[in-house]
Amino acid sequence: MALFPEIDEKASCDKARQKLKEYRHYARLAGRPLTDLKSPSMDGMPKAQSFQNGTEAALVARLDKVLDAEAHIGVIDNALALCKFQSKWLLYFCYCTPEELEMWQVAERMGFGSVGTAKRQKTAALFEFAESYPNHELIVLRNETSKQLLSD
To answer: Taking the model in full, what pTM does it have?
Structure first.
């Protein structure tokens, strides 16, 4: 019996990778303009009086999505800022640029000698990101992994 539970580094890196893959999606959500209002349509049928402002409800729903996306981006940015300089930029080039870069492009930008070196550094950077994420949400303990395997 260990004093501290063992960390499953591979599973933690997988969770970190999934979280970082959401970055571009949230960035697109947060960057859309709020001017996507629709013109009212008339169908000629009488309707019951509604006391809800439909335009306002749509804007509030859209604003909630934008604020939620900005919050997710902020958490990821803060976790990246806590990583070492090289890890931060490696993960940025892999997951946070507007266009997806191939691993050879990332290796070239980072000045690595080979793609294999970049992949090894990326694995270490993902684990570092998982450690720096708030509340250790991305850290998976070995006994949790075995429990998940048994329940599946």
So the answer is: 0.75
* Phi, psi at 119, each rounded to 5°: -65, -40
**Residue 135 DSSP label:** G
CA distance 89 to 92: 5
Does residue 59 carry a pLDDT above 90? no
The pLDDT > 90 percentage for the chain reads: 55
The span from the CA of 77 to the CA of 96, in Å, is: 10
For CA atoms 5, 11, 16, 22, the dihedral sign is: negative
From residue 65, give the alpha-carbon distance in Å to each of 30, 34, 132, 149.
8, 11, 25, 34
Read off the tokens for 134: 């708030």
